[in-house]
Amino acid sequence: MSIHDRCVRRFQILGLFLLATSVCLSSGCAQRITAAGAAEVASLAPRAASPLFDPALADALLESPDRDRWQKPAQIVQALGIRPGMTVADIGAGSGYLLPYLSRAVGPKGRVIAEEIQKPFLVRLRKRAAELDNVRVVEGTAADPGLPPGGIDRFVLLTVYHEVDQPIAFLRKLRMSGRSGSRLAIIDFDAARHGYPPAPLGHELPESSVIAEARAAGWLLNEKQEFLSSQFFLVFQPTIVGRAKSTSL
């Protein structure tokens, strides 16, 4: 990335921060966003997003027979405190690997939103959702997951955050869709962990970058889970809790 591109990226990030600040102040937020916060956003080093995962590799990798052994999906759901009746958004749901676990956890009175932007994955997700009564598929965009405001209890980004091109703006979109007490889980590969399976080249990022970007977007690190050997598992809570009107899903 050239020096010019880096400067443009930083000004874009700062502009998004100032826009969010004006919205917050006009709506009577209790917390004051300071100039120090703006400086933090502007100082974040821009990073290049990884290429989107190739749907043609889904069966071999995302649906690999041994994935449950190292991904521990049931333990992920338990660690997030997902309860019957909740609404959970699986962001970048891909082939729908996590959907059966989320569906069982929220029960018949809950709802799972499977968000995805790639057409081949959307086809697979709709077929999978047809077998699960409480799953709805949503087609998002790279910049906007297309979720209604104030309707989500848990957001899950499983090995997808490294593909997000504008992470701070994207995480702000998620925050606006969260209910009071919502949580955001970001699980992804970090080459520094040296676990199994090894982080795929070009599809990993440092844990510290995620924490900094989330903080700039209004998400505070709430806890870390350490049972995934090659992936970090970070859980965030919103630092500014708005009362967005819940919308029917």
In short, what is this structure?
This protein has 249 residues and is of the alpha/beta class. The chain is built from nine helices and seven strands, in the order αααααβαβαββαβαββ. The N and C termini lie far apart (40 Å).
Q: How would you characterize the overall build of this protein?
A:
The protein is of the alpha/beta class and 249 residues long. The chain folds into two domains: 1-46; 56-238, Vaccinia Virus protein VP39 (Rossmann fold). 36% of the residues lie in helices and 20% in strands. The protein has nine helices and seven strands; from the N terminus they run αααααβαβαββαβαββ. Strands 3-2-1-4-5-7-6 form a seven-stranded mixed β-sheet, sandwiched between helices. Helix 1 runs antiparallel to helix 2. The longest helix is centred in the first third of the chain and has 24 residues, at 3-26. Mean pLDDT is 81; it is low at 1-39 and 241-248.
Keywords:
single chain; 249 residues; alpha/beta; Rossmann fold; 2 domains; disordered N terminus
Strand order of the largest sheet: 3-2-1-4-5-7-6
Beta fraction of the residues?
15-25%
Let me know the largest β-sheet. 7 strands, mixed
* Mean residue pLDDT: 81
Oligomer: single chain
Number of helices: 9
Secondary-structure class: alpha/beta
The Rg value, from CA coordinates, equals: 18 Å
* SSE pattern: HHHHHEHEHEEHEHEE
Gross CATH architecture of the largest domain: 3-Layer(aba) Sandwich
What CATH calls the topology of the largest domain is: Rossmann fold
Number of domains as seen in the coordinates: 2
Note the gap between the termini: 40 Å
Percent helix: 25-40%
Shape: globular
The count of strands amounts to 7
CATH classification, class level of the largest domain: Alpha Beta
Low-confidence stretches: 1-39, 241-248
The CATH homologous superfamily of the largest domain: Vaccinia Virus protein VP39
